[in-house]
Amino acid sequence: MTLHQLNQRQQMILNRMAEDGEVKIAELKIMFDVTEMTLRRDLEKLEHWGYIRRIFGGAILLGKDIALQERTSVLIEEKARIGKRAAALVEPGDSIFLDGGSTTLQVAKYLQPDRQITVVTNALNIAAELQNKRIPTIVIGGMMLDSTATLVGPVAAAALAKMAFNRVFIGTTGITVKHGYSNSNMHEAEIKQLAIAKAAEVNVVADHTKFGRQDLFSFAPLHGIHRIVTDGSPGEELRAALEEASVDIMLGS
């Protein structure tokens, strides 16, 4: 599969299916102002690429973990703005943690070379991004998830247990009033929980499509983080709940 085969609508279909494991064409027609034929072509492509299986009137999801290379190619400009704004929060002397994800990768890209900081990460692509920036970087060990190039499991958890961070930057696949911040993979959710517990300041970096979406594994309630760095405002109900939870919403520029 090439890097740009998944368009934004197809990505949003997969994100919607991550909530319930299936979707109906009638539901997609309400979500998108396109013809049924267009939606059927989208589902045909997603089936061909191995994400879904088509059934009568819709489709079911075959796997929850969407490959990192596909997520990286979606909403590139929005994620870049988020990453730039989040990177500006880092101060000299900070020890920070960046978990795996296409938006946290943008944070790493906007960290300037020779910064007097220490970065800890469980993501191999983030470590590679920082390799030539002369920024002290610690890569925790663990079991590698092929789909996300992240290191998870008992070894990773034991490493995090011995650390403390000024700031962490965490990705999420969903933010809702009831379920808080969530992720499709239980191993990654565990790493997020541990990093949050070890941080003085917790930042979630997420594009606007994550608002109102719920995934299987919750890793923090709404009040469990300090700030969301994003590219758009959440809906009225979620915005009110975040305000009540004292969560700062910062827009990338």
Number of helices: 10
Percent of residues in helices: 25-40%
Main β sheet profile: 7 strands, parallel
Radius of gyration: 18 Å
Strand order of the largest sheet: 6-5-4-9-12-14-15
Report the count of strand segments: 15
Give the H and E element order.
HEHHEEHHEHEHEEEHEEEHEEEHE
Counting helices, strands and paired strands, the structural category is alpha/beta
Distance between the termini: 32 Å
**Poorly predicted runs of 5 or more residues:** none
Overall geometric form: globular
Strand portion: 15-25%
- What integer is the average pLDDT? 87
Structure explained in plain terms:
With 253 residues, this protein is of the alpha/beta class. Helix 5 (76-87) packs across helix 6. It has helices at 8-20, 25-31, 36-48, 68-72, 76-87, 102-109, 124-130, 154-160, 186-197, 236-244, and strands at 22-24, 52-55, 58-61, 95-98, 118-121, 137-139, 143-145, 150-152, 165-171, 174-176, 180-183, 199-205, 217-220, 227-230, 248-251. The strands form 4 sheets. A 7-stranded parallel beta sheet has the order 6-5-4-9-12-14-15, with helices on both faces.
Keywords:
253 residues, alpha/beta, three-stranded antiparallel sheet, 10 helices, 37% helix
Layout: helices, strands, pairs:
Blueprint: H1 8-20, E1 22-24, H2 25-31, H3 36-48, E2 52-55, E3 58-61, H4 68-72, H5 76-87, E4 95-98, H6 102-109, E5 118-121, H7 124-130, E6 137-139, E7 143-145, E8 150-152, H8 154-160, E9 165-171, E10 174-176, E11 180-183, H9 186-197, E12 199-205, E13 217-220, E14 227-230, H10 236-244, E15 248-251
Parallel strand pairs: 4-5, 4-9, 5-6, 9-12, 12-14, 14-15
Antiparallel strand pairs: 1-3, 2-3, 7-8, 10-11, 11-13
Helix pairs in contact: 5-6, 6-7
